[in-house]
Amino acid sequence: MLAHAINAAAPGIMAEEAKTLGATLVHYSTDYVFNGRSNQPYQESDATDPLSVYGRTKRDGDLAVMAQAGAFFIFRSSWVVGAHGGNFLKTMLRLAQERDSLSVVADQHGVPTSARWMAQVTREVLQRPDHASHSSLFHLSNAGQTTWHGYAQYVLTQAARIGWSLKVQAEQVKAIATSDYPLPAARPANSLLDTRSVQQKLGLTIPTWQTGVDEVLAALWAQHTS
Question: What is the pTM assigned to this prediction?
Answer without folding.
Answer: 0.92
